[in-house]
Specification:
This protein has four helices and no strands. By secondary structure, it is mostly helical.
């Protein structure tokens, strides 16, 4: 996997940076499996919460038994390994991009006939 360096010096708001992060995560089978597990975990929490689910960013309190490392920890380690230092706002965007990509893949997997 190629490294992406100097994120802090690039235009981090460009969508291609997030696309590159997602592509690199997908290329790492172990990491991608963990990201998909976190997406499935979030689905389970949302289904348990029902209509009052709302913002799930702080799901640690109602559900103490969570998968570790968390999606935030996975994202921070992965992006920091790729870029070195990374602004916190980019970590949040990368986490969201990873979860959305994993959700999309999970949706595609469930739609496929067996």
């Amino acid at each position: 996997m190629g490294e992406i360096r100097y994120l802090a010096n690039r235009d981090i708001w460009k969508h291609d940076v997030l696309d590159r992060i997602v592509a690199a995560a997908r290329a790492n089978a172990g990491l991608w499996l963990m990201v998909k597990e976190r997406a499935m975990e979030m689905r389970a929490f949302k289904s348990e919460l029902g209509p009052q689910a709302g913002d799930t960013s702080d799901m640690g309190r109602p559900f103490p038994a969570r998968l570790t490392p968390t999606i935030a920890e996975l994202t921070e380690e992965f992006v920091s390994t790729m870029f070195g230092s990374c602004p916190p706002e980019m970590l949040s965007r990368a986490q969201t991009a990873l979860l959305l990509a994993a959700e999309s893949e999970l949706d595609a997997d469930t739609a496929r006939p067996t």
